[in-house]
Specification:
mainly alpha; globular; 12 helices; 0% strand
Length: 307
């Protein structure tokens, strides 16, 4: 089939009783897909794909975090500043990679399981794709928020706490001592408004595109890979671009300890609408690339692990 990242392995019946286009293709040709792995319900491919993507694209995340936070880095041109921001030291890398790995894997795996269950109980594609992804994104973001804040704050050039052996722990301890426990979840409102729609959009596009794109011969490896790549890239880019302003707000709140609405009002008075696009040249790559690669690699790992 096309994108196997999701409940695509057997013909499914929609609310209106119509088979998906891929299922129709299989029924009409009488051919079963050799690409349909038997371990579709296993979380392992999701975690392996998510971890691979998080590790590979951490330097892009670092550059985006610095750019959206407004931290100054050396460089005569935007490209030089971007490359400088990507360079080591990669402070808090293990915490960031670990948080991204379990968070994305839980969201995508849980969304697929939840979506499958809802469809089997008569719900349509829209609700089946959005409700599980929104719920899991909120949970993952809430649990990860203290580590997200500490990871972003230690990216500031010259930050003394970033030189500690365990910089995230040192920053969390500092925030607790100086601002109280609530400081660890500062910006959670903006983070949820950013993270939940981002993954909802990605999952929704992934599910709908998997049905809308023209069916491909499951035996045609190139066609299967091309379709999977189209779905993954579109889902990743859409989610990243649409939620960039909320990334900016969250990171600015970490710097100033402001609440979300006052922070947005101040940036608007100082910069006008330009702040909505701050760091987008870095962010759309830093966010879209790992989401797209997670979706695509999950498809591939499912196939490889079934061989």
């Amino acid at each position: 089939s096309g994108s196997s990242f999701g409940p695509r392995f057997a013909p499914t019946v929609s609310r209106g009783g119509l088979l998906s286009r891929e299922a129709q293709w299989r029924c009409e040709t009488g051919r079963a897909s050799s690409m349909a792995p038997s371990n579709s319900g296993s979380p392992v491919p999701y975690f392996v794909a998510s971890g691979t993507s998080a590790l590979t694209f951490f330097p892009l995340w670092k550059a985006a975090a610095i750019g959206q936070s407004g931290y100054e880095v050396a460089g005569a041109s935007p490209l030089q500043k971007y490359l400088q921001a990507m360079k080591p030291p990669w402070r808090g890398s293990l915490v960031v990679i670990g948080g991204m790995t379990w968070g994305r894997a839980a969201i995508f795996y849980g969304s697929d399981i939840g979506s499958r269950w809802m469809r089997q109980n008569g719900w349509g594609v829209g609700l089946s794709s959005t409700v599980p992804s929104l719920t899991l994104a909120v949970i993952a973001q809430t649990l990860n928020q203290p580590f997200v804040r500490s990871s972003i704050m230690i990216q500031k050039p010259g930050e003394e706490l970033a030189t500690r052996m365990f910089p995230n722990a040192a920053m969390i301890k500092h925030l607790l001592a100086t601002k109280g426990p609530g400081a660890l979840w500062l910006g959670l409102d903006a983070a949820i408004l950013k993270t939940a729609p981002k993954y909802m959009v990605a999952v929704l596009i992934k599910d709908y595109m998997g049905q809308w794109l023209a069916p491909v011969d499951p035996q045609d490896r190139r066609a299967v890979l091309t379709k999977s790549a189209k779905v993954a890239v579109t889902a990743g880019v859409a989610g990243a671009v649409l939620t960039n302003p909320l990334d900016v707000v969250r990171n600015e709140m970490f710097k100033t300890d402001e609440k979300m609405l006052p922070c947005m009002a101040r940036m608007t008075s100082e910069m006008g609408p330009r702040w909505l696009l701050r760091g987008i040249n870095k962010n759309w790559v830093a966010v879209a690339a790992p989401i797209a690669s997670t979706i695509f690699l999950t498809d591939r790992f499912k196939v490889w692990m079934a061989l």
